[in-house]
């Protein structure tokens, strides 16, 4: 327990047995970078009709593809970040990243001509944002080694083509970001159609499975149209307190919805606003639990398994660290005891996956 007074802290930990849960009240926001000599700065676009007309046509098409989404929906907002051309380092990109730290972002994609140095900065920035409980996820081309991070999604495609010719992974990351941002909470991106593609990287079934298991987002073609194979991020090393399904984009999206709600609700509506009484703690617990019920109805959490309450174990540890004699206290007395500025809550639920793996038995009678 800290012995000095610093900034108020908000510690959120997803544990193996019970992830802390709540809701992100909105989703579908993409930050998209392009490099252009015109219109430098950040533009909040709610539709492709608002794409700045002075941008080059290739950049305008890159943005239109982001808005296209899939048959499951599209992004509700695109923060377009136009950075200057002709720079030999990452200065312009870093300035652009700094300019969007004030916004809430779900998915991020670099410019279609992103450099390896810029990719490294994008990864670094994304990890730093997620460490501060901001829920951005980066969509980037896979390179020689995976990022092994559930906040980094890596498209491994070298054989894509559309009617105009070859398409690189970097040129397609904005499209993928738009698709992922538009997926409703109860769905995944598995088998989301990509009708504009005429070819994808040729892989055998075994090679497809190996790529997915290695944390690569890949595409398949069923002879009729191209599709996203399975929605996975680059995480391959599961933390000791983690779960295997943290490698799935849908599950991480659910975790991020929860993180967003906890962070913004506590920081904006509770932190510093109320006396730290047991009754006020219970009010916050009720707010959290009620939203769990909404998440259960939306198919994000499994029905009937959510919970929230004051954390007895951590409260007890705090009191003991402060020299309070706890041996004679009942559990309820511990829960109601004054804890200074600290609020210890425990909540959890089971995140729901989508229907992706089918086994159907047909009996020929």
UniProtKB/TrEMBL annotation:
Domain of life: Bacteria
Protein name: Phage tail sheath protein
